[in-house]
């Protein structure tokens, strides 16, 4: 069996290696699982380069989520059996062919689930769900604004907001088919950022209605653009740093317009609310994923042996969708 490993932090396209890996037999309460699909997220790349909020001891196998099929269940395991499709535990080092896991942490999925789409369910749809539901108390008809709306979190967020009657203004940095796709997902308005005065444009869209939440995946000057679009007392939540730069916010917005700034990290939410709360939310999101109401575009799928090509594509600017490793499909 094989797995991806890194023994030093650095550029993922240089430090990741394919190594032999023997997961061993499942002990009591464990299951042996073949990994069917596991995505490459910006946070995976930041982890390998040593820039993420939580770093593993080295050597380590990257991969924070995925979907697998149970090969063998150990003694005492009753809720899953051989052949079941399961969500792999968050942060369990999923870029491998097979892994052993505590069976309790495997969430069974319906048989008809698309493994590639559901391999991304634990992190991004849940993040979008929580950004919408847990930062400010939004009501149907409220306006919110997000940047990097063409990201997978952005797509999930636009779709979930539509389902809840929340109106979204979606900033993207490029046009082409990007706006159309967002509109099809349920985005209310899409603005291509061409350096124009976005707050003026937003005012024209919402009329006198308030914009109570701004969702920032970019940082840098992008944070200030969002903060300027908020109504007095509105909240900006930072959850990503795609620009690699510190959030810039004009202090006048904080002082005179009472703009609030906060952060969101899924891991902190999980630490506070526990695994059971996560599983409950995942059950409801999995219905939407299975029905195709929540989906991510796929830019490419790769076997483990092409890991460096896969991460190079994942690092590309203006890539159309997620890059997913599909270890079993190619062996
Ligand atoms: N805090 C949390 O718990 C949490 C959880 C999940 C994800 N995240 C974060 O959420 C963000 C999105 O993740 P994802 O997996 O959805 O990403 P993704 O699908 O890989 O997409 C990345 C997006 O970022 C945009 N982008 C890249 N650089 C940019 C820049 N300098 N300015 C503006 N936009 C830029 C890209 O725009 P183009 O389409 O134009 O290339 C693309 O739409 C990441 O920062 C990730 O770390 C955070």
Outline the structure in words.
- By secondary structure, the protein is of the alpha/beta class.
- The protein has 2 domains: 2-120 and 297-325, Quinone Oxidoreductase, Chain A, domain 1, CATH 3.90.180.10; 124-267, NAD(P)-binding Rossmann-like Domain (Rossmann fold, 3-Layer(aba) Sandwich).
- It contains 12 helices and 15 strands.
- The strands form 3 sheets. Strands 3, 4, 5, 6, 7, 14 and 15 form a 7-stranded mixed sheet that branches. A 6-stranded parallel sheet has the order 10-9-8-11-12-13, with helices on both faces. Strands 1-2 form a two-stranded antiparallel sheet.
- Residues 41-43, 123-124, 127, 148, 150-153, 173-174, 217-218, 239-243, 264-266, 317-318, 322 line the site of NADP nicotinamide-adenine-dinucleotide phosphate.
In short:
The chain is α/β, with parallel strands linked by helices and 331 residues long. The protein has helices spanning 12-15, 42-48, 115-118, 124-133, 152-163, 178-185, 198-206, 221-229, 251-256, 266-273, 275-290, 307-315; strands spanning 2-5, 17-20, 30-40, 67-73, 85-87, 98-102, 107-108, 143-146, 167-172, 189-192, 211-216, 235-238, 260-263, 298-302, 322-325.
